[in-house]
Amino acid sequence: MQLFRRAALPGPGGALVSTLFNAPIQEFASLRVDDVDVPWQPNSVDAELSAWANVSAGELGDGKRVDGDVSIAFVRHRLDYVSFTLGRQIQVGGAARMCRFDGATVSLQSPFGLGADAYGGFAVLPRWSERPGYQLLGSAADSLLRTPDAIEQPSRAGSWLAGGRLHYSYDRLVELGASFHEQRTDSELDRRSLGIDAHTEPWSWIEASGQVLLDVDSWQPADGRAAVEVYPLSELRITAEYLHTVPALFLSRQSVLSVFSVDAFHEIGGAASYTPWAWLGLEAFGYGEIYAADSSAGLRVGGSARAAPFESELLVLRLGYTRVTEPENGYHALRVALGSTPVEPLRLTLESYLYLYDEPVRHAYTAAAVDTRFSWLGATTAEWRFIEWGSALLGGSIAVTPYALLDAQLLGRLRVDFAWEGKR
Amino acid sequence: MRRAYLALIMVLLVLCTRCEAPRGPVFPHRAHLVAKDCGKPGQNECPTCKTCHNGLRTSDKLAIAPLSECARCHTPATDKVRAETARLEHTTRAAEPIAFAHAAHLVQPEIRGACVPCHAGATKDGASGAVFPPMSECTGCHRHDAEFTAGECVVCHSRSDIRQRVPRTLLRHDLEFIRDHRDLATRQAKACAACHAQAECTACHDDSQYLSIEARKPNAIDRELVHRGEYLSRHAIEARSRPSSCLRCHAPSSCDSCHVERGVSASRVGSTSPHPIGWVSSGAAGPSGHARGAHRDLVSCAGCHEQGPATNCIRCHRVGGYGGNPHPAGWKSARAKDAAMCGYCHAP
Q1: In terms of C-beta distances under 8 Å and separation of at least 24 residues, what long-range contacts does B197-200 make, across chains too?
Q2: Do B125 and B64 lie in a common domain?
Q3: Do B77 and B125 fall into the same domain?
Q4: pTM, entire model
């Protein structure tokens, strides 16, 4: 349960904002079953079901009293070299990027390292996008509609996707993949992509990988990434990376905006993690961004440390600093986090974040009472693992931000884990 | 609805009475290995690893000494010793997390029958969780390339075991993992699935869910989560810093759905423009702010102006419009001009 007093923010020009008293209760439930026998193949059927529900008490605003959805629901049957998955599922990586659909996937894996996946089905529409979107090709203002709920829900009939990936691997020495993905919205082209990915690990101390996502409509690379990872010591990992992205090519081909730009942004940098002792971990990263459109630049650097000087996680301390700049604004961020297990079933955490912004965050709406150049957030939790398969957590946070003089939240969480392994 | 929740909780509680998670041993190894009241004339032989686990030299089943072995020193065997021995045997049978051939390893010349090189944790105080060596100890000799490729962790691990373990050496999900996991998920989808359900992907990537993963796991201070901390104030900075990074998870219209709800969208009557004065007009210094901003980060524009042609650039930038040709140099598309979106400017 999350109890909070929320303001629909920000109000224009210092106007009073309305506040809501609302107590939403969220429940997440997931079930996973593996290795069920069928008469012709033992240990060959898996299934997964995941759903969430929300019930809100109090004032609603634009929200719904009762809501919920099924996130994942599929059954998979595995044979020696082929598997079939049917239901609501996700496809990740390659040209698919990340998509969720109701449909089927067929996977083939030969014993010689060659494999193929093919999938297709109706796209699961993002619920936050139920209201006016590019798929309507008309604005709420055009139609003089003032209540988004009055607009007809988008139909799924024309929202489908299909694709596949062909891949080959020779141990871990080389892995190659080529993938294709086509997605339609209202039967019109949303995106059509071709993906190429490769990975090699010639020695145990070095890995290299690269991916390219090609927009087939314009035959231009929408996204490309190349990375090299080196392990000079077992405790040290160093990564160098280059990223090339054309943001406009990530928009739907049905978006009018997608015809307005072909400019890329480049990111180059690296990261390192070092664990000199088992109780101490150090990490650092630094990336520079170049925006080709106006030759401006950005920066993203930082470092963090994790110390757990006692065994059994009696005390865990994390410190972090991040500096981000982009052409219009930037910030310094400091993070201190403390975790402790003073007695075995009880775990406590304490966190604090401080952000210092280069420019005021709310240019147009700045209220005199709010210093819009910083945010501070403090949070704490106490979790009591009252039994091996269950725990109760109570958490709270207080924040001072450019958007709120005071933001206070309280969270209660009851968690139940159960795993039962049948005879195999 | 309240009754439904209570009923659901009751069902889960009943189901969970059958549950048992594997655990590591909590036996006070060090206290026994450094025992002082032994080995002298008239005293019992000092316990070593072999005293209790000698069966491992001939069998791969984890051997625990019988209660009679404890009774050699703990005389008479107290109820506590009896209970602890019974619990250890039960726990060991329930866990058996790794399929490991002790007998075959102990005769290797590098190991020479020694237990401590792998189980050094047993010689330290309070080392119950570190009795087993890290996985990198295994993969130092056994690369398991084929198993990694096929995602077949069950060769060594039982399924219930791997889902309750956090990788600390191999497959460790450290700071860089948040950047790398997209590529790993492409190449090693089956290996990911060995531990993770697809629901764990949607916990972050399904932005329709009311509570973010950060809110659901507020005490996971070791996890590198994208929206951790006070994200609302810096979300625009993050979006501009890495254009299109939001779109890897969120649909463009999800920006506006939230902006409408909070009254900062062009789709909402009464909204105030966030753009500075002179945003649209060109000046002597070159292109106007809106042109520079759009070319650099069109995705951020789409956050508000993706609501059809009346809300965006095409009001001015169209055939016959005073904004000029919207297509930049180098722009091309394989679509026919009778596509619905093209029809705003181009007659079919």
Answers
A1: B197/A30, B197/A32, B197/A48, B197/A50, B197/A72, B198/A48, B198/A50, B198/A72, B198/A74, B198/A89, B198/A90, B199/A30, B199/A32, B199/A48, B199/A50, B199/A71, B199/A72
A2: yes
A3: yes
A4: 0.77
